[in-house]
Amino acid sequence: MKIFNSAQIRELDNYTIAHEPIESIELMERAAKAITYNIMQTWTNKTPFVVFAGPGNNGGDALAVARMLAMSDYVVSVYVFNIHNHLTEDCEKNKQRALDSKRLKDFHEVVVDFEPPKLTADMVVVDGLFGSGLNKPLSGGFASLVKYINQSPSKVVSIDLPSGLMAEDNTYNVWQNIIQADYTFTLQQLKLSMLLADSQPYLGEVRVLDIRLSPTYIQETIAQYQLLEEQDVRSCLRQRSPFAHKGDMGTALLIAGCYGMAGAAVLATRACLRSGVGKVIVHTPKRNYGIMQTSIPEAVLQMDKEETIFSEPVETDDFEAVGMGPGLGKNETTAIALIAQIRRTQCPMVLDADALNILGNHRAWMQQLPEGMIFTPHSAEFDRLEGIASNGCYDRLLKATRLAERIHGYVLLKGHYSALCTPEGKVFFNPTGNAGMATAGSGDVLLGVITGLLAQGYNPKDACLVGMYLHGLAGDLAVRDLGEESLLASDIITYLPKAFLRIRE
Fold first, then answer.
1. Which ranges of 138-241 does DSSP label H, i.e. alpha helix?
2. 341-382 pLDDT tens trace
3. 0.85 cut: is pTM over it?
4. Are residues 206 and 101 in the same domain?
5. What integer is the mean pLDDT of 224-247?
6. pLDDT at 65
């Protein structure tokens, strides 16, 4: 699914109007019907509704919804805000349609003074104040109204976006002046801000309503952002030959686990093996020998000369992919060995965890990186890598996009809706995964999966897309049986086979 920006959303509406063809007011009617249907599927006409309509087209949607609810015998109170004595053309038309229907007994057009209605727990508020076209924080009376709604016990349904939330960049928004919706009925497509963590408290349950906007425009228009779908991942999966042997399935090298952090190496190795790679060799300190040999008999061990740390680079001529970082530690000897390893490695590389933290501590080394590398940081690791804290999720996403372009590689920013930033400036969001995966070791598992896919011959982009989708899907399958609280990183590995089977169905 493509994620369009605000300008493209307007163009999509206009293109649909011009080429379907359909009048803009009738397109608004179509949207209102979809919203009303979802409302009626959720609440009966025993529930009273209060509709707040702004002066723009979002308000026009809300007025049409109010009329349709009233026509179905819902008790609806309407407040349309016309404080500048100017409604958009379609908003004005829907105001008149609402009045002409004679079904709305409690209709208020707010021009100067506004006495807010009492909002009770049995009511539902329809938020139609402002939609995706908003470009500055709410202030004044609208900000006060938002705070009033948020403090009420009523349920809130927002049309398209919670009022006050902008479609893309909320870096300098005033968060307390944004509607905290229980439901967001967004039209046709998700908006970028809906995929960012700092917007989640305001969205509630999100439903994407198909209002049949132009499929031609959607198909032909290039979008910087995209939400992965199952068919996208399925098309990337490679088929194993019936005559394949382990040599055909690649050999991966993992450099992981200082003394005391062998568990990270274990998780990464097990995940790498479960991803389908032919052979995994693990380079780890001597003291990890017993743990690794016992925990993962399928892996081949290559012991560092040091007892407790990674201290020396290794030859990589016999490997198809290298993954580095889980539990590696940040010892200065390890840091020097890491940059030496990066310089001499000719095959695809994935860096995670302490490998990224080391680069963050030696930022000049970033100029020495080969092209095509994959970074898999969570938000704190990314900020350390950048050397400065990000000002919110959108700012961090922009920085990650620029970093991927600068290093001519891939930055997989982990989190809910993990985002893969490509060297071309594209961003792919992952829809799989859940809060139970916020547990130690989950990132080690992801590194193992991606490294294993690279070793099998997947290109870096496909390895990341398939890897993060399967990683999240395995977590989703696991959480159904185990619950979010009890999910462990090792459970993600256990459910990886089921994730593969699900995609191949």
1. 140-151, 200-203, 215-220, 230-236
2. 999 999 999 999 999 999 999 999 999 899 999 999 999 999
3. yes
4. yes
5. 95
6. 98
CA distances (Å), 289 to each of 208, 314, 471, in order? 51, 17, 27
Q: Which two tokens stand for residue 322?
A: 């290298």
Query: Could you tell me the CATH number of the domain that includes residue 429?
Result: 3.40.1190.20
Please say if the pLDDT value at position 156 is more than 90.
yes
How many structural domains are present in the chain?
2
User: Which residue, among 5, 270, 15, 290, has the nearest Cα to 132 in the 3D structure?
Assistant: 5
What was the pLDDT predicted at 505? 86
Boundary of a domain, candidates 223, 248, 282: 223
Phi/psi for 383 (5° steps) reads -65, -40
At 57 the pLDDT is 97
On the CB side of 79, CA atoms within 13 Å amount to: 19
Rounded-to-integer distance, Cα 423 and Cα 477, Å: 32
How confident is residue 397, by pLDDT bands cut at 50, 70 and 90? very high
Print the domain residue range for 146: 2-223
Burial of 371 (0-12, 13-18, 19+ CB in 10 A): exposed
Question: Which structure tokens are listed for 308?
Answer: 């407790």
192 with 288, same domain? no
